[in-house]
Amino acid sequence: MTVFARRARASAGRMHPELSLVSYTLLGHLEEVGGCRATDLAEHYALDKSTVSRQVAALERAGLIDRRMDPEDHRVQVLHLTAAGTEILAQVTRSRRVAFRERLTGWPVEDLARFASYVQRYNGTAADSGTAAEKPEASPPRD
Q1: Among candidate residues 77, 60, 71, the one with its CA nearest the CA of residue 26
Q2: Residues of the chain falling short of pLDDT 50
């Protein structure tokens, strides 16, 4: 698992040198939920608000996210992906899929099915238990 995480971090750095694996994870979450507050990100990943604040600031500086007023509560700012954020996330996803295909080429269908079921089981356990495996530091961006 450590090697897997290291490869994910290295891959993230190659795509955009200023962004960390955590940044890509946060971008993926914003895409998945269609935007949310920074406090929601902190709560979801069990991170300190200051950590999320630094990550959000870096993503804003890079032009990958922006803040919009919540139409229901003008006191609240909701984070959303910009067009550039959507594109870089799509690039990362394409790159990762190519890498996965290359690594899995030649695997028998039975091994692929077994591997997929193990990954689903692992991810399901982490989501159900709220363990550290859910935190961005321990889980690469989704594919």
Answers
A1: 60
A2: 130-143
